[in-house]
Amino acid sequence: MNEFQDSAGYRVAVLVPCFNEEKTIGKVVGDFRKAFPDAGIYVYNNQSTDRTAEIATAAGATVRDETHPGKGNVVRRMFADIESDIYVLVDGDDTYHAPSAPEMVRKLIAERLDMVVGTRLSDYSANAFRLGHRFGNDLLTGFLGMLFGRNCTDILSGYRVFSRRFVKSFPAVSKGFETESELTVHALELRMPIGELTTPYQTRPENSVSKLRTYRDGMRILFMILVMFKEERPLTFFSLVFGFLSVLSLALAYPVLITYLQTGLVPRFPTAILSTGIMILAFLSLTCGFILDTVTRGRRELKRLIYLSIPAVGE
Q1: How do residues 89-144 score in pLDDT, each as one tens digit?
Q2: Phi-psi region at 49: left, alpha or beta (left = phi > 0; alpha = psi -120 to 50)
Q3: Which pLDDT does position 34 carry in this prediction?
Q4: Could you state, in order of their start, the residue ranges of all structural domains in the chain?
Q5: Other C-beta atoms within 10 Å of 155: how many?
Q6: Pairing of strands 12-18, 40-45
Q7: How far is 166 from 153, CA to CA, in rounded Å?
Q8: Residue 226 and residue 221: Cα distance in Å, rounded?
Q9: For the segment 197-243, what is each residue's pLDDT rounded down to a tens digit?
């Protein structure tokens, strides 16, 4: 049990996932110690091959190891291990603004929210975003908003504050950088009260290397969004599949039907069989959508009950 408490009487835990951040982790721990003098600061070392763990320990953080590679795996372990009232999640690369964290916490408490996201897109240093990162962020953010019906400003931000009820109801299935998208979808699907706060975003210090791989991780995030759309909105997803297969089937059947009406013959018999098979698949897809929608409703209700079983901030 974490015994640290902030000045408002809430226990605050600062969670820092790290992989080879020896250049920055000491400053990150120091800055958040200034922001939260009484908080527990936990650095989770994810198979680092440098002095990350040693420097974090010397700076006063509690260092723990997570052997499964990937930020999603680290977040899952942190959320499972740490007991607190309020959680501050931040990367260990010294790009996020530590003095903004208390304001984010105050917003969470005052407005009784479950998640506050530190958005980076209107206050950032020159070259803070690598080539293509800002465009990819906007693209993925817009795509997620289109699928889940609510626009968020910065779904890929790694700077977030959570309530206990959010953390302890979060299933955490992703393995890598997709975890930010999963956090957002969890909040949207349970209709949690969430907010955003503009925070400064700065360039990585010299000789500090980003672990994000633009195209590979971008495609993984996009795939994760599609998977979550299938899992959380199965009726819509499989209805779209039904529509595509139906149109394809009718397009193949049209010339066969015209020939039959004109001659009474079906000379392209294989095409007719293919068209029939595709239409059967279309209706099977629609049936799957109805069945999985019922299952998903049950899962969502269960997650909601778990969420409601934990007192809200301020209770």
Answers
A1: 999 888 899 999 999 999 999 999 999 999 887 656 556 556 556 777 778 888 88
A2: alpha
A3: 94
A4: 12-231, 234-307
A5: 24
A6: parallel
A7: 20
A8: 9
A9: 999 888 877 666 666 666 777 788 888 889 889 999 999 999 999 99
- Copy the structure tokens of residue 147: 């699928």
Closest CA to 73 of 53, 42, 47: 47
Predicted structure pTM score: 0.83
Q: Any idea which fold 12-231 has? A: Spore Coat Polysaccharide Biosynthesis Protein SpsA; Chain A (3.90.550)
Which amino acid, residue 117?
Answer: V
Among all chains, which residue has been given the structure tokens 């819509």?
236
Tokens 């019922």 correspond to what residue? Answer: 294
